Amino acid sequence: MRIGVLALQGAVAEHIRSITKAGAEGVPIKRIEQLETIDGLIIPGGESTTIGKLMRKYGFIDAIRQFSAKGKPLFGTCAGLIVLAKEIDNGEEAHLGLMDIKVARNAFGRQRESFETELAVKGIKEPVRAVFIRAPLIMEVGEGVDILSAFNDEIVTARQGALLAASYHPELTDDYRLHQYFVDMVKDAALSAK
Ligand code: GLN
Fold first, then answer.
1. Which PROSITE patterns does its entry note (predicted)?
2. CATH number at residue 41
3. Which domain covers residue 59, as residue numbers?
4. What are the pLDDT tens digits along the chain (194 aa)?
């Protein structure tokens, strides 16, 4: 399996390292043509407004919507989760608008700008290590969205079909089981496309 990491801004190298540990090939994606060569795509953390602007500039909004329409999986982490969402709480225009979730940016308060914790994630046996950095949270989910984990009663991991979203940075730890979970989603999607 070849899994791309959108490389316009943000934590790209760390995701590639985790994808490799999970037994797939990781490729930085800088041009829309490269989407043809991959089976799944990660949209990393960073700053969602900046990532959204660069995506518009380089044609990634339509290109990734088409990629997703073919059933190819997407995984958004932190800012990447905001980029996937249908609705952003502050009235900001949605970016990809693919996932039926409403999100709030920078939602964990100033005193908790950055912290690391263990999260129980549905579908993964033992708790996963997660780093939260000015993280968003999921305020509402639509039908068909499966909630995979919550932190202090706030939804922080969710899945809707071939779309996976996490508020935090799984790539900043040595724990690659969430990447493994995504690699499995990509394998399943590739099998059902045959
Ligand atoms: N606060 C950032 C945003 O709103 C996300 C932070 C992150 O990706 N670590 O886009």
1. GATASE_TYPE_1, PDXT_SNO_1, PDXT_SNO_2
2. 3.40.50.880
3. 2-192
4. 999 999 999 889 999 999 999 999 999 999 999 999 999 999 999 999 999 999 999 999 999 999 999 999 999 999 999 999 999 998 999 999 999 999 999 998 665 689 999 999 999 999 999 999 999 999 999 999 999 999 999 999 999 999 999 999 999 999 999 999 999 999 999 998 87
Four-CA torsion 117, 12, 163, 93, nearest 10 degrees: 100
Domain count, the chain: 1
The secondary structure of the chain in percent helix, strand, coil, rounded to multiples of 5, reads 30, 30, 35
CB of 5 closer than 6 angstroms to any ligand 1 atom: no
Active-site annotation, residues: 78, 169, 171
Token duo for residue 142:
């639509």
Question: Structure pTM?
Answer: 0.97
